[in-house]
């Protein structure tokens, strides 16, 4: 633990893995109950799915690896003890969320789940308003002016 920081986690309304998994499973369920046609042809769908899955997984894992190396909590139920701003954090304040969102979209496309793809939109709204918007004041309080400067320099998503 960094000196002076308590072990309180960020006050998020929902933990991201739960949100993403619930939305994806709901999408798969809706695909069975109220099927929708696929949004894209198979060729486009498979190509986009592959790119999104590879990019999203690699980006999220790179960001998580940097958190691990810095010795700070990755899950939102753990306290942030270090401020990471290099690697993917130099271009997005939330590269793990960005990567997971891209991988989610890729998996939805790979499985031709139109509902899962549609449900990604409310997931992103919830992430933006009820997770990230609650994490940022928490991080600003923990890391002070350095984090405030980071907020001005790096965009929330991309």
Question: What can you tell me about this protein's structure?
Answer:
The chain has one domain. The radius of gyration is 17 Å and the shape is elongated. The protein has four helices and no strands. The protein is an all-alpha fold and 158 residues long. The longest helix is centred in the C-terminal third of the chain and has 40 residues, at 114-153.
Query: What level of helicity do the residues show?
Result: 55-70%
Taken together, the total number of domains comes to 1
Strand elements, count: 0
> With helices defined by DSSP (H or I, 4 residues minimum), what is the helix count?
4
Unreliable stretches (pLDDT < 50, length at least 5) are none
Strand content: under 5%
Main sheet properties: none
Keywords for this entry:
158 residues, mainly alpha, 4 helices, elongated
List the helices and strands and how they pair.
Blueprint: H1 16-33, H2 42-70, H3 95-110, H4 114-153
């Amino acid at each position: 633990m960094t000196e002076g920081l308590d072990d309180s986690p960020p006050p998020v309304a929902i933990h991201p893995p739960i949100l993403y998994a619930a939305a994806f499973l709901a999408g798969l369920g809706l695909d069975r109950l109220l099927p929708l046609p696929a949004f894209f042809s198979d060729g486009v769908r498979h190509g986009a799915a592959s790119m999104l899955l590879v990019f999203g997984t690699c980006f999220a894992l790179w960001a998580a690896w940097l958190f691990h190396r810095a010795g700070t909590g990755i899950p939102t139920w753990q306290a942030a003890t270090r401020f990471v701003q290099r690697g993917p954090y130099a271009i997005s304040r939330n590269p793990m969320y960005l990567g997971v969102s891209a991988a989610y979209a890729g998996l939805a496309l790979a499985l031709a789940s139109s509902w899962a793809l549609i449900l990604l939109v409310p997931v992103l709204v919830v992430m933006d308003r009820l997770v990230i918007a609650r994490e940022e004041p928490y991080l600003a309080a923990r890391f002070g002016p350095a984090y405030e400067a980071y907020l001005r320099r790096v965009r929330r998503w991309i």
